[in-house]
Specification:
With 228 residues, the protein is an alpha/beta fold. The protein folds into 2 domains: 6-130, Response regulator (Rossmann fold, 3-Layer(aba) Sandwich); 153-220, Arc Repressor Mutant, subunit A (Orthogonal Bundle). It has 11 helices and 5 strands. The protein has a 5-stranded parallel β-sheet, with helices on both faces. β4, α4 and β5 (106-109) form a beta-alpha-beta unit. α2 (40-50) runs parallel beside α3 and α9 (181-188) packs across α10 (192-205). The longest helix has 14 residues, at 192-205. The radius of gyration is 18 Å and the shape is globular. The mean pLDDT is 83. GO terms for molecular function: DNA binding. This is DNA-binding response regulator. Keywords: DNA-binding, Phosphoprotein, Transcription, Transcription regulation. Pfam families: GerE (PF00196), Response_reg (PF00072). Residues 157-222 form the HTH luxR-type domain.
Length: 228
């Protein structure tokens, strides 16, 4: 391991799940669990006190839910937004899209293998987003109705169209459709490294933090349709 360990804060209301996360993360040579929280209010206070590198956030928690806690820690307008990895279960949680809109850097399902969870923390700690293409497609299908843009989205959509080149718009639509860089490259007949360059340009031009925000924005302004 080179450099300091990734400092992780676990926010989960079930003690057994917290203990499991702690065991998994503490066993990694490049991670250190710096704290735990059993509800959203504790999560916000602990994050502000401990300044972790990555916050693992459950959505369904008492007092303040994970969406509101994420918004307070990573939401729009914050000078130093926290890096939040949301963990959820699709068949009981219907607020994943809202959590992403609140500033989460990515999400995984609770039944993800430990290796996938650990890799997710490393990905977000590096400053990348974690929105797996397959999960993106599930998200789009599950929340098709609420992803429909409001009438007020048209001016924002026109502004984005003016800001991006035709090819950048194509790439943004492919990102929002849940395609990986390799899949976008195959679809548009360009090199994966070229796709990576386009993604970086899109994020910079639209002042977006990561790929997650690009997906959310594309749907909010109607660049792509949730009803497909």
């Amino acid at each position: 391991m080179t450099g300091p360990p990734i400092r992780v804060l676990i926010c989960e209301d079930q003690a057994l799940v917290r203990a499991g996360y702690n065991t998994i993360f503490s066993a990694q040579p490049d991670m250190a669990v710096v704290g735990e929280a059993a509800d959203g209010r504790e999560a916000v206070a602990a994050a502000q006190r401990l300044n972790p590198d990555v916050i693992v956030m459950d959505i369904r928690m008492p007092i303040i839910d994970g969406i509101e806690a994420t918004r307070r820690l990573a939401g729009p307008g914050l000078l130093s937004p926290a890096k939040v990895l949301v963990v959820t279960t699709f068949n009981i949680d219907e607020y994943v899209y809202e959590a992403l809109k609140a500033g989460a850097s990515g999400f995984l399902l609770k039944d993800a293998p430990p290796a996938e969870l650990v890799n997710g923390i490393r990905t977000i700690a590096r400053g990348d987003s974690l929105l797996a293409p397959a999960v993106t497609r599930t998200l789009i299908g599950h929340f098709a109705e609420r992803l429909r843009p409001a009438d007020t989205a048209r001016p924002a959509r026109e502004e984005i169209v003016r800001a991006l080149t035709h090819r950048e718009l194509e790439v943004l639509r492919q990102i929002a459709a849940g395609l990986s860089n390799a899949e976008i490259a195959a679809t548009l007949f360009i090199a994966p490294e070229t796709v990576k360059t386009y993604v970086s340009r899109i994020l910079a031009k639209l002042d977006l933090r990561d790929r997650v925000q690009a997906v959310v924005l594309a749907y909010r302004v109607g660049l792509v349709s949730g009803t497909g």
